């Protein structure tokens, strides 16, 4: 069963406690996202692999874009059509990994 999507004010409140995360500018799909920057590609990939393990354990997978030393993580609950508490929890886990 899909999770309930968060309201705009609930998302803003959650983002206030998630350093670096913002709302996506895209009007098509509501997401939260963060860009992480590393000293090189190897460190970026080590981070991505740690996130992959956490995501697999949580059964909630971010969209990941890797550009050399920059990694963009985007979270949305596709089955719910927007940002849910699952996304907020995963964002916290990702921040903890960093």
Walk me through what this model shows.
- The protein is of the alpha+beta class and 98 residues long.
- The protein has a single domain (8-97), classed as Transcriptional coactivator/pterin dehydratase (Gyrase A, domain 2, 2-Layer Sandwich).
- The chain is 40% helix and 19% strand.
- It contains three helices and four strands; from the N terminus they run αββαββα.
- Strands 1-2-4-3 form a four-stranded antiparallel β-sheet, covered by helices on one side.
- The chain is globular, with a radius of gyration of 13 Å.
- The mean pLDDT is 93.
Entry keywords:
single chain; 98 residues; alpha+beta; Gyrase A, domain 2; 4-stranded antiparallel β-sheet; 3 helices
**Count of individual domains:** 1
CATH-defined superfamily: Transcriptional coactivator/pterin dehydratase
The top-level CATH class is Alpha Beta
How many angstroms does the end-to-end distance come to? 31 Å
User: How would you state the average pLDDT, rounded?
Assistant: 93
Roughly how many Å is the radius of gyration? 13 Å
Task: Give the topology.
Blueprint: H1 8-15, E1 22-23, E2 32-37, H2 41-58, E3 63-67, E4 70-75, H3 85-97
Helix pairs in contact: 2-3
């Amino acid at each position: 069963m899909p999770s309930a999507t968060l309201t705009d004010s609930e998302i803003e409140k959650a983002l206030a406690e998630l350093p670096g995360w913002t709302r996506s500018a895209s009007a098509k799909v509501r997401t939260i996202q963060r860009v992480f920057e590393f000293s090189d590609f190897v460190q970026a990939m080590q981070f991505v692999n740690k996130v992959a393990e956490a995501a697999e354990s949580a059964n909630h997978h971010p969209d990941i874009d890797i550009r050399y030393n920059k990694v963009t993580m985007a979270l949305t609950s596709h089955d719910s059509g927007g940002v849910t508490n699952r996304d907020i929890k995963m964002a916290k886990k990702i921040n903890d990994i960093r």
